[in-house]
Amino acid sequence: MTYLFTGMIIGGIIGLTVGSLAAAFKAAEKEIARLHKEVKNAHKQDQS
Q1: I need a labelling partner for 38 at 20 to 30 A (CA). Which of 9, 12, 15, 21 fits?
Q2: H helices within the chain, ranges in order?
Q3: Is the full-model pTM beyond 0.85?
Q4: CA torsion sign, 5 to 10 to 16 to 22?
Q5: Under DSSP, is residue 7 helix (H, G, I), strand (E, B) or coil?
Q6: What dihedral do alpha carbons 12, 17, 23, 24 form, nearest 10°?
């Protein structure tokens, strides 16, 4: 029973870590796309 509990704790920690990294990666991709669009618009305004 102790091994089961320990395994569940370790699995939960690993699951939370992987899930958090995936969420952070997704948020970073959106932020990069937003910044890329902002830089494009800034270049357009400079040329005008």
Answers
A1: 21
A2: 2-47
A3: no
A4: negative
A5: helix
A6: 160
